[in-house]
## 1
Amino acid sequence: MSRLNLVIAVALASVLLSANATEAYAQGPDRCISDLTDAELGARLDWVERDLRRGVKRSRWWYFGWLSAFTALGTGELILGLTTDVDSRDDKAARDGYYFASAGAFFTAASMAAMPMTSAFAWKRLRKMPNGTRAEREARLVEGLRLLKKSAERQAFASGPLQHLSAVAYSSAAGIYLAVRYDNAFRTALAWLGIFTVKELQTLSVPKAQIHAWDDERYGSRPCMAPLLRPERGVEVSVAPSPGGLGLRLRF
């Protein structure tokens, strides 16, 4: 009977520990900040700040570069469409191709303006937060983790399958429309390849530094169970018994 009680007690303890672990994971990567020592808090904050600083210039170049490019492309294609003479069927195909390209470019630019690349601005926002007291550093770390997660999510969305699907869908729609209505192979190929290529170049060039940082174990799956302080690397010298007596062991 006592053995049965022991088995039941172990089972209940396992269930409770599992429930507590699940609840703790649900609280997110900032759940254990108040339990950190000052040294651990400083190290964790340094990591977050470093990962937010990483690739800032590239993120800005990507965001403002493509935003400007799509705005300019949309404007240029619209002007070409409005100024194209429609004396022939081929001219009408060219005009509609310009309109398709312009609409796609303006839509992409508007989407980028509505959903900015967080990694381009996150470090500047975090840098303005005070860093003097323990409470201020904890708040700074919480905000840093939030910005890092948001940066990773935005980069993942901008480089994700939905972007590739939209490139295929819109370019195919433009190509099919021109092929069916005007039977113009050149304009059909130009619209399909042009729209698809530009959109794919934008998607494939998305910076991903914050995706990799957030996927790191200390931020993602086990943020509080991972070591919070990096071990200092150096040469470790030890003396150990060996078949010939004592041996000197060096570890780097």
## 2
Amino acid sequence: ANSFFLLYILDEFNIYTREAGAGGLAIAVEGPAKAEIDFFDRKDGSCGVAYVCPEPGDYQISIKFNDEHIPESPFNVSIVPPFGDAKKLTIHSLKTKGLDVNRQYTFTVNVNGARGHVDARIIAPSGVEESCTVQDMGDDHYAIRFVPKENGIHWIHVRFNGRDIPDSPFRIVVGQANADPGRVFASGSGLYQGETGQSCEFLIDTTNAGAGALAVTVDGPSKVQLDCREVTEGYRVTFTPTAPGDYLISIKFAGINIAGSPFKCTVG
């Protein structure tokens, strides 16, 4: 089904039935709350539909002609709250480059007279998500504190009353220049081919890459358990596929794919 996004306001769409012949038309909007629907026949082979969803969330719009869904019906619609007062908020003193791992950083948010709840969260390169500490400093200012735990690109979401403020999420880069994914190399037959029920093995060389988080995932016809062991050259990784087919091996360092990643391993 089709998916699209709408603001949490009155919306309209048209249905053209001129070429369909005689028949009954039925429209339904289903979701977290009951939507108000206004239907009007223009008498020219087309109909107009207007609706208002009273709450944000995921809705489905079903359109049937003679009790059968029209092509691509039901349509998925994500209703989000409007920016509202969130557009009034401004960010100050957010450092976006050259941050260090395990060090606390602080930036401020000015709500500029808006009244509501401020919250923030940080998403690390590995996908781990943590809440930021938000402190009301008075005089319309909030202090937001966070401690990055990984090298690489992070994203900071700042929300007001559940809605991202303009330009959120904010991109920050953690780590020194020596955390270089371009200096990480993978080798071994297990990156390219294997046999069902037999161990596939490869080596990841991180000796010249500096400090950074290493993330390895394998996706394919069967779920596999990764065994990652530290060796002199870096890490030795093994997995045992239980079904034949193509497996994609993703290797990221500091949140960035290394050269050749994702690798395709064909298992016979």
## 3
Amino acid sequence: MANNTPSPNPTLHAVLRPPTSNVPRSTAAGNSDLIKMLHPITLLSALTSTRTTLKPSIVGGTEVSITDYPYQIALLNGGACTCGGSIISPNHIVTAAHCVRSARDPSHISIRAGSSFHNTGGEIVNVSAIAVHPAYSAGMVDNDIAVLTLGQALEFKPGIEPIALPASGSTALAAGEEVVVSGWGTETETGSLSRVLRAVAVAVTTMAECRAAHGEKYITESMFCAGVAGGGKDACYGDSGGPVVGGGVLVGVVSWGKGCARPGYPGVYASAAYLRDFIAAVAGV
């Protein structure tokens, strides 16, 4: 992987479109400021000085059914899908901190579970509490994890089921290990959200490759990278907070990247193993 000079502004993968090419990956729709900065699909306010780009829809993947990804949920802000998330218990969802850090009132946030579509079907459940990792850094997008408590417990059934967390004491993922990322994010850096759930398989890189691509100081122990050498497969705007699964376990959460699916720039994910203690403490799992 080339030793590229990192962009001063990464891209979060929420549904907001950042002013720079490097931002988180979410799709904020209820907050104009957030939508401007997050990976075309992540709501992040006050992110103009950061290096990341929130991410949109899955790039290079295929349409899938919620029955095969029953832990996937759509995170709704004001009724619009801005990020993804994962069911880990009847009452708890794991997502990216940058997807919810600006949500002052949990009542504005809800989830859609049990549907292959982000805007119809399934069940909508309100969020009653939001716990953001105490060491979360918006500037570094470090410890990018949050746990949502639902106002009403989910009833597990086909299409609505939990995903297991890594075992306590789990080590870092092995380079070359295949993981699957899913979400409703955009399929290109300038596209719209996918109506149907999509998934793509990518390979974990070494930390050395990850740091060479994005910059030594920007990749911390709470992160890992995954992608394909020639680009073309990645999470994108709107996928932020969504699941990264390996071996039937939630190994990560979509966080940020430089654009989407660009050669030499693997996606950056929050490590569920590294952040497990926080998740378990909040959710009691």
